[in-house]
């Protein structure tokens, strides 16, 4: 397994801790991975193309395909839009989740979502379903399956597709995101004639399944206390919700969704409520979208929904007025895909944060990981010039990583697993692993820097004569210098460095250490 070292500074003036990650890639061959989940069985669960579910050893990368859906259907050209032939019908293998009691006999179920043909060969009708797989904990294989939700609607864009099983008030539920299915009337006005046929007009309509987040019982039935009796919808008014994140500590559920040219959103989900798409985009008070303020002021609640009201996002990425440019790379949207709630103390500055991955390498955006620090109420903590929120990571590796489709965190919080679509010289799908390196003061120093402070030259006394790498980083985490050495004593000229604090990272095959020094 090829390993790289990446120095990322999460230096906080209170703790004074530098953070180093090593970057590695699992040697796993993947095809269009969409979901990665770290299971309670200490294995990674991944969905791949053609209706496949794979189980992967997070240490070795060894993969076992545990199920391939025989009825998987990749859509048909016969379903292409008559007005937009380039737009194909939705298809693919999307979200996956494990039963909250997965390690308990009778509850060892895997749920995943994929496309199938609900029509005929001559008249295809591609839709989505959710299949429940039964897992034998002893033999570690699938022993049965059942399609518990079928006929999920489809369209030419914005499919959502994330599913998440969580316990709330000790009751397990299955949450499913379904996008609005409509091509943007701003970007592709020719695709619907008339525009009233665009399915994104119905994102707020409780009688359609698109533009909603749905809640089911674990057998696919509808909970008796859903917002409308007999209706699976849980929240409405969503555009393309591709992420679901559960905050177990506070019993809060978040969705992450793509905006249209502006306003990628993180929403805190409230049962039955309306999140405004497509009349409201992002924050209610900014009026960045024509007619938005009037809609918010004069909102008419649905009489069938208790306490119905509009809810604005807890954070909007790219909260600006709609740009006139048709060049998507120039928009400040980041195309967020999914996220995870980081609860570990392994990286103290990350504790109680949402980690969000993005898909877009634009003129002003990168394919990277956002860290949103939460407050004790579960909303976004304030951002200051000294401590900005959010913070961003791994952008410097985006050409290696490619599009970041999903994220999972190891139980100890020391490893971040990213599903990557493309990237690298071979443009291959893969799993990238970032492992945090302990840099606390209880480690042996491993090397010495002297004189320290220095205004001209430093000497580095190494503990071994081995091929090794020495890197210097400034207080922002930017790499200033790198050398390869095969010596026990290294002398560096630092006279050209500005006065201040720097970090020196040393790595050989057996050691990874970091120390700070001061340039006077």
UniProtKB/TrEMBL annotation:
Report the EC code(s) recorded for this entry: 1.1.5.2
Q: Which UniProt keywords apply?
A: Oxidoreductase, Signal
Under Gene Ontology molecular function, one entry of this record is:
quinoprotein glucose dehydrogenase activity
Q: Which InterPro entries match?
A: 6-blade_b-propeller_TolB-like, Glc/Sorbosone_DH, Quinoprot_gluc/sorb_DH_b-prop, Secre_tail
Keyword GTP-binding in the entry? The reply is: no
Task: State the Pfam families in the record.
Answer: GSDH, Por_Secre_tail
First-tier enzyme category under EC? oxidoreductase
Signal peptide start-end: 1-18
Residue ranges constituting the Secretion system C-terminal sorting domain according to the UniProt record: 449-518
Record domain Glucose/Sorbosone dehydrogenase: where:
30-424
Q: Which PANTHER family match?
A: HEDGEHOG-INTERACTING PROTEIN (PTHR19328), HIPL1 PROTEIN (PTHR19328:SF13)
Q: What is this protein called?
A: Quinoprotein glucose dehydrogenase
